[in-house]
Design brief:
With about 450 residues, the protein is α/β, with parallel strands linked by helices. The protein has helices at about 20-30, 45-50, 80, 95-115, 125-135, 190-200, 210-215, 215-220, 225-230, 265-275, 300-305, 305-310, 325-335, 350-360, 375-380, 390-395, 410-425, 430-440, 445-460; strands at about 1-5, 35-40, 55, 60-65, 70-75, 120-125, 150-155, 165, 185, 190, 200-205, 235, 285-290, 315-320, 340-345, 360-365, 385-390, 405. The protein has a nine-stranded mixed sheet, with helices on both faces. A six-stranded parallel sheet has the order 15-14-13-16-17-18, sandwiched between helices.
């Protein structure tokens, strides 16, 4: 099958979040399954500055190579993409994002004809690529070159929809009649993600549970009605984990490599983490790790409420992340109050993140909602036991068999579950068995790619 992956960021070239990881890893797994894959993304300033080896195709198309023979094409426009940020600066989104990503979507479709790639499937990701489905079914519908192409739209987080003022609609180059409640209109504004949902042949989210949750008002973000109309073509496919990056047996950032065969060596990484974080070196108490955005929906509201009670337990707590300033202040104050219990690193530190996954005993992810989540998957690989709220991808991956789960989103339930996990840690033989179950969990991209292949077949049949 010929597949075009359309994503606004791809790991190795440009990244702000998990979308880039998916857009970089999924094509490799699809190629291994025998599919012919092409990727298209904007040529940002960071791509130009990276001095990536480029090849020319035709008069204007430049591409790089990944995998065995996957071409990553770049849509060029210095006025739109030669900027420090992908979507905005530190204070706000770029005012012309509608023009920037509508240009990207139109040129992505034009590129297919330019390179003579008759895709069976165009797999678009998030609002930035959503207009591809809209354009394909409207502007390009009379062109026989595109007649057999079908679209799959992946929603990574429904909270980000691409909303713009209605007076910008003409910039899209679409018939004004499409600005209606059955099209791109959303409470008087343009909604690019909604347009993608309406016109895509198949829509999916990044976990089966999240696909069900967004049909309700709480997590539907105003699109639950549109999604319910589309629910027969709405699916959930869990993201995979790139085990070439996250593997304790080969990880270059950790003090001692380990696997199932020598899982006891994990304790060396715990000792190093305690030393780095200036915590007392103790192997008989559990280290709880967190690598997260410091935000309310990541569970920091209930975590903050219970922080004093948590720090009074016989534990150590290591937190890495950045986000809401109120949680920065709260955690810094708590770290000063509990210097032998709590270590806080505010910012992004990839080597430290690896050390936390490898050196912690328990990994906290009390997110109120989590479309997929990668932290719990990484933790499992490093025999670090996840403790999560039952939502989205966390509900699909963590059970009593490989972690700890609470179902009432409250401080009381979170604290009680931490106490339960700490008590379980003291029963060392059972804990060792839990670690073994964790490290054996398989959430590889190969599994996810096979499920995406099935979705592509559904799209072709539509």
């Amino acid at each position: 099958m010929k597949i075009l992956i359309a994503a606004s960021e791809v790991v190795g070239f440009a990244k702000t979040g998990g979308l880039a990881d998916v857009a970089g890893a999924l094509p490799l797994a699809l190629e291994d399954l025998g599919h012919e894959v092409v990727i298209v993304m904007p040529k940002y300033k960071c791509v130009q500055e990276a001095k990536i080896r480029m090849f020319k195709s035709g008069q204007s198309s430049a591409y790089a190579l990944i995998g065995k023979n996957i071409r990553v094409y770049f849509i060029e426009n210095n006025a739109f993409f030669n900027r420090p940020g992908l979507y905005g600066d530190k204070t706000k989104d770029y005012a012309d994002n509608l023009e920037r990503f509508s240009f990207y979507c139109r040129k992505s479709l034009d590129l297919l004809k330019e390179i003579d790639f008759k895709a069976d499937i165009i797999h678009a990701h998030d609002w930035q690529a959503s207009l591809i489905s809209v354009y394909l079914k409207n502007i390009y519908k009379q062109d026989p070159f595109y007649s057999r192409m079908r679209t799959v739209l992946t929603i990574h987080n429904l909270g980000y929809q691409g909303l713009f003022a209605q007076d910008e609609f003409e910039k899209l180059g679409l018939d004004r009649e499409l600005f209606n409640p059955q099209g791109l209109e959303f409470y008087g504004r343009i909604n690019l993600l909604k347009g993608g949902i309406v016109y895509a042949d198949i829509v999916n989210t990044v976990s089966p549970t999240y696909a069900k949750e967004i049909l309700g008002e709480e997590l539907g973000f105003g699109l639950e009605g549109v999604l319910n109309e589309k629910k027969d073509k709405l699916f959930g496919v869990l993201n995979g984990l790139d085990y070439s990056i996250w593997d304790p047996d080969t990880d270059k950032f950790i003090s001692r490599n380990f696997s199932l065969k020598n899982i006891a060596d994990k304790s060396v990484n715990k000792e190093e983490l305690q030393k780095i974080c200036k915590l007392p070196v103790k192997n008989d108490i559990p280290v709880l790790g967190m690598v997260s955005r410091l935000a309310e929906h990541k569970g920091f509201d209930i975590f903050a409420q219970g922080l004093d009670e948590i720090c009074s337990m016989d534990i150590q707590l290591v937190i890495l992340g950045t986000g809401d300033p109120q949680y920065h202040r709260l955690l810094e104050k708590a770290a000063a109050k509990y210097p032998k219990v709590l270590s806080v690193a505010l910012g992004f530190d990839d080597p430290l993140a690896h050390k936390i996954y490898a050196g912690s005993d328990i990994f906290l992810m009390p997110s109120r909602y989590e479309p997929c989540g990668l932290g719990q998957l990484i933790a499992l690989r490093y025999a670090t036991i996840p403790l999560v709220f039952k939502t989205g991808g966390l509900a699909d991956t963590i059970t009593a068999n490989n972690g700890f789960v609470f179902t009432d989103y409250s401080k009381k339930a979170l604290v009680a579950t931490i106490k339960k996990a700490v008590a379980a840690f003291s029963v060392r033989r059972k804990w060792a068995g839990l670690m073994q179950k964790a490290i054996l969990c398989n959430f590889s991209w190969e599994v996810s790619a096979k499920k995406y292949s099935q979705l592509y077949e559904k799209a072709r049949e539509s």
